Amino acid sequence: MSALRFSLRETPPQRLDLSALIPERLADLEMAEILRLSVTTTRQPLCVGDVFTVHPGKADEVVIAGGSAWFDEVGAGMTRGTLSVEGEVGARAGRGMQGGRLLVRGDAGVFAASGMRGGEIEIGGNVGAFLAAPGPGERLGMAGGLVVVRGNAGARAGDRLRRGVIVIEGDTGDEPASRMLAGTLIVCGQAGARAGYLMRRGTLVAARAAPLPTFVPTGSADQVFRALLARAIAAVSPAAAALLGETLARFGGDVATLGKGEMFIRVGQIAATG
Amino acid sequence: MPELSRNGVRIDDSFAEAFDMRATGLIITADTLAWARIAATSLTGFATSIIACGVEAGIDSELSENETPDGRPGVRVLMFAGSTSELQKQLQSRVGQCVLTSPGSACFAGLEGVEPLKLGDAIRYFADGWQISKRFGGRHFWRMPVMDGEFVCEATTGLTKSAVGGGNLLLMGRSRETVLRAAEAAMVAMRGVADVIMPFPGGIVRSGSKVGSKYKGLMASTNDAYCPSLRGLTQSALAADIASVLEIVIDGLTPEAVAAAMRAGLAAACALGPEAGAARIGAGNYGGKLGRHHFHLKELLP
């Protein structure tokens, strides 16, 4: 049996809350019930049937054909199965996700992977600001799982990251790994300004970065850890695994706060702080 | 009943009696195989018998760069004990004193078991607050700053409750020289068997023991029935042509692994023949009432 498929018929009239379109919510529903699921975000009621044509299939493998920057909360709260979106998505993709796999072929908006606890997210394009960050009023950002972004990330990627691994194959906006608590953020390109700002613990790896004066060079004695990490992510991101195998300088910080974090930067690509 | 023999070597119609044990495995890596071996040898030192060492331990195999978690050369070590608590205690004190301390080492789980045993979880406090926890790829590691860099240790390793301890072979011959030659040949063959260790020095024990003693408080004492110098003075198991006896004790993760090791050892010892090697091969047991596993020699012959 093929995947359960949602095809967008036309440009939606409002932003859509697609958090209902996850395998565990759809598993026991009849087609009529699926068509009646609410996707509205305004006072104007809107249900799945109003905007999507649904092709029946197994609910463990959900496909959203077409994409839109108005597709919010895609894969939010997901615990199992796979969900793939053939285009772009809006805000809070994979928010609070606990398991399963979310694949977005296009770009994703702000707060993707926010509050994530487990599972895997792959974003084929770029991602907005506050990747994996805590939601409003929350103390922790992402606390488990794996996120891979093939393009660039906006500002504050990995804010308050608690656990898990994030790979950004492109560049990041300002302050990646800000206020990081633990976990690992790998940037295969250029890390934005003030990388690791107020980082407490955790690991930031960047091909190019300008460490703040509150990051101190510590020398590098980390081959075993880097080899383990490289092997763990080699299948999902050969670029990140290759970066981990290069000669990297290590810095400890942010000593403006707890200072038990670490930053690895490719030797020869360490810029002075502007 | 006709006497069993292979290549002129008499085989006792006897069996090795073995016991259920708790066991765990570790993978120790280092910058070179030589240094991984040093750490493992140190870890498995003074671990010949649970009678006084707490644990029986040995090197199971050497691992190439492709077989270890961190891509460095390493060795796999197995540890056996009578109880989970003793195994846990020995594991953390031995890894803490012998692997953490060894230059360039790292330590990983070497067994998937029914329950976890603390590995890095028990040792991380050495780092005095500078330990770093890392979870990825479904595994959990602790990184501890040490003077030559960083000690990486997996948080836990696995425990098996279906391990077997006490498989054995008794090699008997006409001189110390020929018996030792047979035991060495058997050991070479048995080292090639996976999931077993032979915990005694070089795998070989010359002071086989019986249960109990005439002295109060001694759990074990010399196996007088197999001491050539007591022939005629005690209830001896030795005929006049036997001048020396050596034993090989085998602990394995499964009964099948112990049987495979005994089979390999028997074949190698028999191949030497009675003149160059052992004239007779037997096995130690306690009448079959103490241990659940009975390895009959006649079923393991080449």
From TrEMBL, chain B:
Reactions catalysed: N-formylmethanofuran + 5,6,7,8-tetrahydromethanopterin + H(+) = N(5)-formyl-5,6,7,8-tetrahydromethanopterin + methanofuran
E.C. number: 2.3.1.101
Domain Formylmethanofuran: tetrahydromethanopterin formyltransferase Ftr N-terminal intervals: 5-146
Cellular component, GO annotation: cytoplasm
Location of the protein in the cell: Cytoplasm
Top enzyme class: transferase
Domain Formylmethanofuran: tetrahydromethanopterin formyltransferase Ftr C-terminal: 149-300
Pfam families registered for this protein in UniProt: FTR, FTR_C
Molecular function per GO: formylmethanofuran-tetrahydromethanopterin N-formyltransferase activity
GO process terms (BP): formaldehyde catabolic process; one-carbon metabolic process
Pathway linked to the protein: One-carbon metabolism; formaldehyde degradation; formate from formaldehyde (H(4)MPT route): step 4/5
Predominant subcellular localization, coarse grouping: cytoplasm
Keywords for the protein's UniProt record, in alphabetical order: Acyltransferase, Cytoplasm, One-carbon metabolism, Transferase
Family recorded in the similarity comment: Belongs to the FTR family.
Job of this protein: Catalyzes the transfer of a formyl group from 5-formyl tetrahydromethanopterin (5-formyl-H(4)MPT) to methanofuran (MFR) to produce formylmethanofuran (formyl-MFR) and tetrahydromethanopterin (H(4)MPT).
Subunit structure comment from the entry: Homotetramer.
Protein name per its UniProtKB record: Formylmethanofuran--tetrahydromethanopterin formyltransferase
Gene: fhcD
